[in-house]
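Entry:
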Amino acid sequence: MRSAKAHFEMKARVMKKMLLFVLISTLVFGCVDQKKDVAGRKSANQINSKYSPQDAKWFDIQIFADYKHLKIFSPWGEHKLLGEYILFRDVKKIPDSLSTIPAVQIPVQRMVCLSASHFEPAEQLGVLQNIVGVGDAKYVQNNELSKRITNGDLQCIAPGGHIDEELLLDLKSDIVLVSPFENSNFRKFTEMGITIVPFPDYLELKPLGRTEYMMLMAYFFDKEEKALQFISEIRNDYESNKKLASTLVDKPKILSGKPFKDLWYLPGGKSYIAQIIEDAGGDYYWKNNDQTGAFPLDFEVVYDRAIDADIWRLTVSYSGEYTKSVLEGEDERFADFEAFKKNKLLVSNSYENLYYERAGMYPNLVLKDFIKAFHPDLLPNYVPHFYSFVKK
């Protein structure tokens, strides 16, 4: 038999080995768990995807596991932001490093839209019912929104262009979409706890860039897939019809706009509308101009250069049928233009056709309207949506 001392020494050696095994196991598996924890935290903060619009220039977004980081850029200053937002579901999962950036819980429930161009993307995304406030009733042509205004279910917070701050606060909206202008200052509203979201769609120069603003709205409502499908369909239709007109050699000369107080405001050669005219196979007189917005010329300058234009494109807002006599009533010199004489006045009457609400989302329809007018044989069965020649 072994002595008590030997037995004790053997037992001690066994216990020592067991303790060593436990210690090693703790260190190994503890490190594994710690790595998993670090990896988990890291994956939550890694970019899963980044939506970079193909044509829109003034926004982008980074998608993380627990939140989205949206940036809206200023067209008036390089590297300047108009807005920056963290879109989240669980506020506890926003990294501390982003705590100074305005945060919006998604999907949002209540939205105010101060521009008519916001209505169409909202309708296509199925969130019209989430609009609790609009600007001025006279600029709302959407049927559903008009009915809600009439019934008192939808508030107009900016009649005459002046925002009713008290009413805006009472609406308790999650976000307020605005069309920004240079030197716009929304600090007063942000200090009131109102989340202002600039929506610079009208400043995009590429036609399809404006359509992509449906994606900007979609991120606030978790409707990305629906937006992507819509944008893809519009893009495919635009590109196929642009290709249809791309081989044309004979292109009609195009005049655009009309004067205001003897100054004729023309679309710049790098503007949105000039791009669509070119894509539709038209030859715009000021296509080589470097301006991206409208620029003024004296009436006489336009008269001398474009009096022989084949087609004169106009966008008006007129209650009733817009005719040649209506145009001539504004200035009898208009009757001297060849396009006037030959009944080639291509007019969009926004009072009747929702042009300012819908055209930005549907550049493909504007393109086809122009192709139909410039080269009717290319689209013999197409019925225009916005632009058509005046009948008399």
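The chain has 15 helices and 18 strands.
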